[in-house]
Design goal:
The protein is an alpha+beta fold and about 525 residues long. It has 17 helices and twelve strands. The protein has four domains: about 130 residues, no CATH class; about 120 residues, no CATH class; about 170 residues, no CATH class; about 30 residues, no CATH class. α10 packs parallel to α15 and α12 crosses α14. The longest helix is centred in the middle third of the chain and has 30 residues. Its main location: membrane.
Length: about 525
Amino acid sequence: MPVSENNNTSQQPLTNLLHTSLSENIFTIKEALGHSNDVIIREIIIDKLDCLSIAIINIDGISDKTVITDFILENLLLEIDNEPENKIDNINDYMKKQCLAVGDVKDLFDFTALFTSILNGETVIVLEGQSVAIATDTKSAKDRAVTEPQTESVIRGPRESFTETLRTNTALIRRKIKSPNLWIKSRVIGEVTQTDVAVMYINGIANDKIVQEVLDRLDQIKIDGILETGYIEDFIQDSKFSIFPMIYNTERPDVIAAELLEGRIAILVDGTPLVLTVPVVFTSFLQAAEDYYQNWIISSLIRLLRFFGISLALIMPSLYVAITTFHQEMLPTPMLISIASQREGVPFPAVVEALIMEIAFEILREAGLRMPRTIGPAVSIVGTLVIGQAAVEAGVVSAVMVIIVALTAICSFLFPSYGLSNTIRVLRFPLMILAAIFGLFGVMFGIMMIILHLCSLRSFGVPYMSPFGPLIVKDQKDAMVLFPRRKLFTRPRLVSQQNNVREQQYYEKRTKH
């Protein structure tokens, strides 16, 4: 019981209105913030206003000291000092209109708003005898510079990526879409972290029902903290137990701009360079930004290569297990003899051999990712070569198994989306188990279950496998293949159900013919 009483006491000031006494306000602020030494409280006295006391409060490190000194303290003292005595009737209004040379100024009436402003990097001015405080925008501009994307590099296209600052990210998108219809809805999520979340969409293109659904799901999130977009993704996605990624994420502003133009909705979270987009379909994870910047024929061939690569990455090990275990008659005689001679000294069945190599490769890949960048790739490559060669020479695995695992790993790197790559990595293992038990029938059964599961998924009401299921002929222009830009005059029908036409004049001309 004493613990709950202390908690109630510490939280009580957050619900109270500001006092008229400056000393009481300062005492409440210090107590609520635990007398933290990064809380700067500067008290000044104005002689010409009957020795009026003013407190200037900010957090060191997240507030810009130069702005506070040059545009608040200096202006405040000089402007009031130049005024005749007793001429100022309303000091609060006079300070906002005459003294504070900063961009954003607002009134605060309670401690909840006051603490929110201070912890966001704003500077708060509290006056003696006033139950209203003034918040000024003095957020520090220190953030990571806009650099080249680390995970989505391109040969042709923009070389800029999002940063960890929310306003920098929204500015990067507005630079590409200079339209007044690009709207932003803000939310603050996290009882403790008070994380800023922005929802961006193009009014008149995005589906209003989906926009409202996104906002409603964000409003239902009740958690103590949001540190990355993964927190938001876990709360708002439709199928929470599906292994497939249900929300698309990227660090490229040009990709987000393209998604917004198709009618999708972007979710930005302060503190992370990844931006979410909804709704999403399966083909989105196999499309790269560079597809739209080069010749459409080349882009179509590369896309087909990705679809072929995802098939190989998913079923190649299981096919090897099924054929070598149950269906040897499917192989040509010379190949069968070669594989049999290689496996002659291997003490394990094919499924155990495949599992050993797959697990070993996954361990090496994870180790390469977690190691320092200077030694990670070298250790990963050398470890793979040494372990693979040693395993073959020791007779633990066959050489053809090493080749299959290597090709499978290379195919898994074809996907632009890291989330889909992880999904394929996991699904390989149950398919290998099914192949070891039922042969090719087990492999086909596993693939059918995966396809049925994909067809049952929805992302904010949009079928996950569209435009294949349901079949939408018009949307096939930007699915497995990419049509020329002049043919892409309509937006995805199920994503944007209003203003579907990109180029109205060209579309009308085509429909007349």
